[in-house]
Amino acid sequence: MTKMLKTLALTLLATLIVILPACRTKKTPAPVVAPTPVVTTTQPPPVAATPVTQPPDFVQPEAKVTEEALPSDIDELNRVAQQRGYIQDAFFAFDESTLTPDAQTALTNSANWLKKNPQYNLLIEGHCDERGTEQYNLALGDRRANTAKEYLATLGIDASRIRTVSYGEERPFDPGHDEAAWAKNRRDHLVLIGK
Amino acid sequence: MKKTTPALSVLLVLLASAAHAQTQIQTTIDQSKAQQVARIAIPFPGLPAGLDPQKINALFFAPLTRDIAESGVFAIAPLPPNVPPTPDLLKRISAAYLLDLRFSTTPAGGGGAEIDYLVDTRLVDSTGAEALPSKRYRAGEAALTKTAHTIASYIVRSINGKPGIFTTQIAFASNRDGFWEIYLMDWDGGNQRRITFHRGLSILPSWSPDDERMVYTSFSRNASEMYVINRRGGGRIKIHTGLALNTSARFSPVGHDIAFVGSVNGNPDIYVIRDDATNLRRLTTSYSIESTPEWSPNGRQICFTSGRSGTPQIYVMDAEGTNIRRISFEGQWNDDARWAPDGERLAYTSRVNGVFQIRITNVVTGESHILAGEGSNEQPSWSPDGKWIAFQSNRSGKWQIYRMRADGTDLMPLTSQGENKEPDWSKKVE
User: Which ipTM did the prediction report?
Assistant: First the structure.
């Protein structure tokens, strides 16, 4: 019995909490409207309004959305494709050629775009940072590029669309000599090429 | 404080000085220096009127005296100025030899105003007797420095009985003209000249055994390919291998084989192909990365780099690809192995405390030591007499090529324009 009363009381209280603010809002006075400034200058005589007559066959123009064409210049295309993330480079750990989860995501995104754009082939450039030796890094870059090629093939990209080249540490993206630069330079760089 | 008896103190001092002496010996010993060094006086050559002494000095006398001073066979005996080098004077300055050089000129032929230089060369001993058959050399101005190296080689070879290396060449890659191209220079860094014009990325030159050709790698149309070119730049041919990479190409010291790194589906291995692009053979079959082959001087073995242990290390195999054994065990990254002409020592690049240093390892005895220097020091190449090593270092902030004796002494920069790397010393000695 006591429990039932308690529940009833709580329900009433809850109802009041919900209703009260609503009531208060209603009671809020209307905002004070600023007084209209008194115009002292002479008003020009009102111009007679000409009635707007619509032509009987007027049709609203359709709101148009066009898909922007990809640049025809291949260098510009690559710049745009990288900037918009259509194709994404894959990055590696030092002296490693296995794909990190991030690298796999980058390649998966690239594969999705490549599938929808079969008019392009792909060049994968394998790159290394300067901390290794040049000759071994040329071989390491070859393996990095081919690791990405194989991965893209498993995602359904025809391997015949993909070429690879290793630049080892010959063409760094960042000329710096610290870990930030090295991390940028250990990569598979994806380049769109014509068929 | 611990008490030390006087006798023990003396012993400790003796031990310390002995250890010090030993260190001294180890850092200065060099076979060429340990030989008897003969003092030689070289007066500035007599010139006919009209020849510019400064030009003759720069193009001829300076390189000649440098060669002889660095030969390890002679030490230059300084001469007082404007005193005729009589036997008495030679005796006073303890000179065992006098190199007497005289210049004259003759029309070069061809009807132009060009002249040839004639250089009469006499080596006499302290009694005034001829120590060698005298010779006359003839050369145009462009070959005057080569004449100096040739004379130095003749004298050192004749007195020492061992071949000279002063006319040898060092091939290398440089970006001084905007692109990486292949260049040549004399052994002392003189006469630097470009021989490839790919306007792309051309790297890793290697001399043929007769020094007439080079093989190298050049990138074009998004692929790296192997080319052979004549020493003077002509006759370029592409060696089509059908493989990817085509890097680290090395001419065999015997025959016409080229060892290189080829790759199929991302598996770089050591391959050999003939210089007419036939008879391709695969020497390694491991799934690991293999790179950087180099023939032993007799052509029967090949050293290379492999990642099969988890890090790049040096291995040696028979030239057929059999009998693979590991050579390097120190450090987490070793590469660029080059066989010394004695067939026993390997020089290679070894990572020590985060930077690369040149390491010398004797494959017979297993003895191994580092030739430490500032910065990273990579890609050693032996002189054909095994006394010098050219290498690349970034100690100046840019990659440049240096030369040092095989014991690490007498360091000398050879390049300064742009960046320069991958020295490969020519093979022949005189």
Answer: 0.88
